[in-house]
Specification:
Elements lengths: L3 E2 L68 E4 L5 E4 L4 E4 L7 E2 L13 E4 L5 E6 L8 E6 L7 E5 L4 E5 L5 E10 L2 E9 L7 E5 L16 E7 L5 E6 L7 E5 L7 E2 L12 E9 L5 E8 L4 E7 L7 E8 L3 E3 L6 E5 L2 E5 L7 E3 L9 E6 L5 E6 L5 E6 L7 E4 L1
Amino acid sequence: MKRFVSFVFSLSLLVVACAPQIQPTVLPEVILPTATLPATEEPSVQPFAVDTPQGTPLPPEINAPIFESPSIINIEMLDEVFGWAMTEEKIIRTNDGGVTWYDVTPPGLTEAGYLAFTFFLDADHAWVQLPDMNRYPNGGTLYRTTDGGLTWEVFDTPFSGGSIHFVNESAGWTMADLGVGAGSMAVSIFKTADGGGTWERVYTNDPNIEGAGDTLPLGGIKNFILPLDADTAWVGGVTYAPGQTYLYRSGDGGKTWFNINLVLPEDSAESELSVVAIKFLSATEGFLALRKSSETPEILAYRTSDGGNTWEALDVEFNGYGILETPSASEMIFYAGDQFHVTNDAGVSVQQITPDIPFGNSVVDMSFANSQTGWVLFADASGARILYKTTDGGATWIQQSP
């Protein structure tokens, strides 16, 4: 799962209208005949399942209008077939790997794109949060769907925007941005237990708010929040101080935070370090990516087997700034310098792949379902964004839209 985290607070307030209820089509139940064994024979237990040729099933239709040739600005694929995306004005989704896109924009939402903070849990549950500039930074609007975008509910939020993440359909966290200045960033941590209907502030480091804490330092830019459950969450960021990392963990529901140290390469003392991604495969097994900015920028990878108490540096480095995708705790795809660097064993081995289309430095977003199947958004000379798909780890690509 991956969130879209982009907004421009200079844009005007969106007009929000409650979405009318649209009843999804109910398909009639199909009862298949059951094969009966002869009474004289004992059924044998097979050690493996035997496939019966039935052809490739068609994906279920979505009861929403098809959106032709979308100009996508962000994409989040959940697996090889289901995914969500955004244009500057629409929220769209696919159930056939990006071949067909359906318009599931909430009624009344006329502008989204770079304004929105989004989180897509699965094919049914999604959240879109937008700021109310008249109440910034203490007010916004949250759209929630539980049926794949066919219907939406609308809620007020006590924050205008920030990194949002749900661990299930009910429990979610938000790290709300309260303002950035001089290398510092004030935030408030909010939690919900009812799917976003109501939110409770559990922490803030803003000294202007009563009860502010200092365990999540004001200094440093916070890139993201990653909750694992109702109690445990991680915050990653960048301090802009050479040789220092911004990595914090909470184990009490966000009330207090503790710094987690990483063992850094000797040549990192003068480098700016930014935690750009964390993935956990289980409660104990996880993966972390650290961007090192210097004359020779690179991505450093770490792995944990004790829930993040300690992190082991992997013997893998990706040179350049580029774009990073981590579909799982063992898979990582890094694009830079017209090369895809792919690992599916947590960095034990890395394959360097040259795409058959020279994307150059014009890849603006990408989403991989796994180390083989992925999508990139390519910006052409006019600025238009074109969606391409690969099924072989980045070697060959086909254009999907527009």
